[in-house]
TrEMBL record:
Coiled coil: none annotated. This is Alkaline phosphatase family protein. The lineage of its organism: Bacteria, Pseudomonadati, Bacteroidota, Cytophagia, Cytophagales. CDD domains: Enpp. GO terms for molecular function: hydrolase activity. It comes from Echinicola pacifica. Transmembrane segments: none annotated. It holds the Pfam family Phosphodiest. InterPro entries: Alkaline_phosphatase_core_sf (IPR017850), Phosphodiest/P_Trfase (IPR002591).
Length: 336
């Protein structure tokens, strides 16, 4: 789903109607289902009497529409990949009626390494890939040994772009002259004006600053087409850095200096930029009894994975999603 349907306009944002802040690192907010719009895949599966399990997907701990996955864990980044894979394989050993028919599993390794060393540090990335490949191999071998007709889809939620310290922009200093509150995500900052009538004044004051651009939040490129119920969560103005630049507060400069010293890294990696940025490209692999073999397909928006999984599970595709089954239907054997 796009932002207009799921409601998460960013990892950090303010909702003026609730007078509350959502932050991905705030467990209370993440577990509060009232923040989320639309119908997640796990909820759609449970609605159709298919047990779902989730090992660390955003919002999977939350009660959404009165529904949680049958099996889930509160996020804990210290849980090893080995433990995660072992748990998935244990789920497949459950009796038929109890066995989850949809399992989502998350690994953070590549994201962690990309942030620390940047996406172009081949040595560190290869170390992480080798370690993750070992656990994926154990997962796939374990799936094969079950003898069950299991389809596997491997994706990444985003790409990563390289950021250097000389390309950090101090948004705190930039916004000091104005009467507003802001919430900064690095690749995009939401500006919430005390008086919306000040929009022109703020735009004029920020106009011409190097390496940033202002975008009105109703720009569908960032919010998407669909319901307007979450538009107020977008700032009255958005500050977006040019490609290769990143927004930080004054304390952020110290944070990145310390990170560079700790990891002996000349650059680091960040994401959250618009999908038009080629560095944000992600992966997609699919395998299983429902999937055709040996196909390579053109890049596509990941919103189309939702209806694909519904089709494989044999459950209805919710009307309020943005994905289109026809985009990925050609990879299914039944559509040959």
């Amino acid at each position: 789903m796009r932002t207009a349907h799921h409601g998460l306009v960013d990892n950090l944002f303010y909702d003026p109607n609730r007078d509350q802040v959502y932050k991905i690192g705030n467990r209370e907010a993440v577990q509060d289902g009232s923040w989320y719009g639309g119908t997640p895949l796990r909820v759609q599966a449970e609605k159709n009497e298919l047990p779902a399990a989730s090992f660390f997907f955003i919002g999977s701990e939350a009660d959404i529409q009165g529904i949680r996955p049958r099996y889930y864990f509160d996020y804990d980044g210290t849980v090893s990949n080995q433990e995660r894979v072992s748990q998935v394989l244990q789920w497949y050993e459950l009796p038929e009626k109890e066995r989850p028919k949809l399992i989502t599993l998350y690994f953070s390794d590549i994201d962690d390494i990309g942030h620390r060393y940047g996406p172009n540090n081949e040595e560190k990335l290869q170390e992480a890939i080798h370690s993750l490949d070992k656990e994926l191999g154990r997962l796939f071998e374990g799936i094969k040994e079950t003898g069950l007709p299991i389809n596997t889809i491997l994706v990444s939620d985003h790409g990563m772009t390289e950021i250097r310290q000389d390309r950090l922009i101090n948004i705190q200093e930039m916004l000091e002259p104005f009467d507003l509150k802001y919430y900064n995500n690095g690749a995009l900052a939401h500006l919430y004006l005390e008086d919306p009538a000040d929009r022109k004044k703020v735009k004029k004051g920020l106009k011409g600053l190097e390496n940033i651009k202002l975008v009105h939040p109703t720009n569908k490129k960032y919010y998407g087409k669909g319901p307007q119920q979450f538009e107020d969560r977008m700032g009255d103005l958005l500050v977006i850095p040019e490609d290769g630049y990143y927004l930080v507060e004054t304390s952020g400069f110290i944070k990145y200096q310390n990170r560079a010293a700790m990891f002996k890294a000349e650059a680091f990696g960040e994401h959250g930029f618009h999908p038009d940025n080629k560095d944000m490209g992600a992966i997609f692999y699919a395998n299983g009894p429902a999937i055709r073999e040996g196909m390579e397909i053109e890049p596509f928006e990941n919103i189309h994975i939702f209806p694909l999984i519904c089709e494989i599970l044999g459950i209805p595709i919710p009307k309020e999603i943005d994905g289109d089954l026809s985009v990925l239907a050609p990879i299914l054997k039944v559509h040959q």
